[in-house]
Amino acid sequence: MENYRERITIDENICNGKPTIRRKRIAVNTILEFLSAGDSVEEILKHYPGLEKEDISACLQFAADLMNKNFTIKPVA
After folding, report:
1. CA dist., res. 58 & res. 24, Å (int)
2. Consecutive 10-residue averages of pLDDT for the chain (77 residues)
3. Is 75 inside any structural domain?
4. Domain presence at residue 77
5. Half-sphere exposure of 14 (CA within 13 A, CB side)
6. Alpha carbon of residue 23 to chain centroid
7. Could you list the residue range(s) of the whole structural domain that residue 63 is in?
């Protein structure tokens, strides 16, 4: 698959800056929630006919890339 960065966009003026799919106002998080609930790629594409199978793959690649980052937990006052 092509680089997911060509499909996942972040714009502070769209969906409050959440990552979206090709500026379509469909948040990556929304697609990940459908997948985690057990919906198939085909079911998601029926709900969002403007999406392509590669968009859903890009969401998964984006999430995997985030999980490869290092995180630090800092105490809150």
Report:
1. 14
2. 84 95 95 98 96 96 92 87
3. no
4. no
5. 14
6. 11
7. 4-67
